[in-house]
Amino acid sequence: MLMSEGTNLSELFPIMVDDKSGAMLWKDLRTLVLQYVMPVGRLRKFYEGIARGVLYGTRCPKCGAKYFPPRPDCSRCGSSDLEWIEVSREGRLLAHAVVNIKPESYQRYEDYTVGIAEMDDGFKVLAWIRCDDPKKLRRGARVRLEIAKIRENDIPFYHLIPAEE
Ligand SMILES: [Zn+2]
């Protein structure tokens, strides 16, 4: 027997207890480096738009589905003939959550707030919300969709901010 009753498992295994959730976690000794490489050639207009300060989504003329961030193919009806539309920058907050138990790849970030907004033209947008006090956020509140560089990696991206009513 390698251990007696009451011995802490972390003395034998790379097992730790998460401070916030109390969950038992196996922390593997190997470090895995994961880097996403995704084809984005069919979304070129989206990135060109962000570079110019414009946000584009796609809309399926066949079934009317709207996608933001844009998809090159309609997941509702299968059409690959989608059109580009500029997305409204004003909308209403449908839901939000402060994320304080973060996935491994987000551990270096402070707690952050994500939200889903319905823009005035019907596009639904999931994005980080930049605000001083997430407790003041309310469902139905007006929000704006803005483009700014992400602090942590200096890449321009979109996020939501509370708007004046
Ligand atoms: Zn469609």
Give an account of the 3D structure.
By secondary structure, this protein is mainly β. It folds into 2 domains: 41-87, no CATH class; 89-165, Beta Barrel (OB fold (Dihydrolipoamide Acetyltransferase, E2P)), CATH 2.40.50.140. It contains 1 helix and 10 strands; from the N terminus they run E-E-H-E-E-E-E-E-E-E-E. It has one helix spanning 44-52; strands spanning 15-17, 24-26, 56-59, 66-67, 83-86, 90-99, 112-119, 124-129, 142-149, 156-162. The strands form 3 sheets. The chain has a 5-stranded antiparallel sheet, with no helix packed on it. Strands 4-3-5 form a 3-stranded antiparallel sheet. A two-stranded antiparallel ribbon has the order 1-2. The chain is elongated and about 65 Å long. Bound molecules: zinc ion.
